[in-house]
């Protein structure tokens, strides 16, 4: 282990998450970091796949509504709450009415959505979240009839912070969180550990491991915030280095001698036990007398 000296690099985030109860039209992805700097050239490659009620893909679209916002506090929920409430009230136009009808029809048909792709964010603490926050508050109320009816059940197929190396374990892969007759916000608190994997060929693969703690906040009738799935990450100041090593010939000989010695010792013990068992059986048999 050593102190992480990387500066000015980005943090890659690979996501693949399915929402079986929310159509793609209502989902948006927001990225926020704690630097207080508004990044206008956030590099993203995110796609949304429309899913039928059986989980089969029925359509795809490029997700162009990814936003990175500056945020000066850790209170992410309230920040988005204000963003939503500031949207001016207006009469629904034809496009809004069309969208509402389309989304309601999709929900009646059991349509879901898979969000997948990659984000490149700054190497500072922050979060990204998938939610319905991109909707106008009035449109959202028309679709869901209140925040308590937004079902953010989800399946995390993959979440990683860089390329994979042999033996890596991403703790959120294949994680399923399904809600029944309730709603709320999921928060995953992630500690990212910078990692270097050094191959026998002297090649170096820079990547990241992570640990996670999850928390669920049920929605209450008095809450003004809307359900979402948050991934809040922070970076460890320590870099872990993993090296591939090949055992030398002397180590092989030592292990071979240990195995052979153990085999001979066990064989000798078995031989002594068998001799004593046979001897005790033979001595216990009655001998016939001479006539």
Automatic annotation (TrEMBL):
It comes from the Eukaryota. Residues 71-91 are annotated as: Disordered. It is a multi-pass membrane protein. It holds the Pfam family ERGIC_N. GO terms for cellular component: COPII-coated ER to Golgi transport vesicle; endoplasmic reticulum; membrane. Keywords: Membrane, Transmembrane, Transmembrane helix. Residues 104-271 form the Endoplasmic reticulum vesicle transporter C-terminal domain. Signal peptide: none annotated. Residues 1-39 form the Endoplasmic reticulum vesicle transporter N-terminal domain. The keyword Membrane applies. Its main location: membrane. It is found in: Membrane. Belongs to the ERGIC family. This is Endoplasmic reticulum vesicle transporter C-terminal domain-containing protein. It comes from Aegilops tauschii subsp. strangulata (Goatgrass).
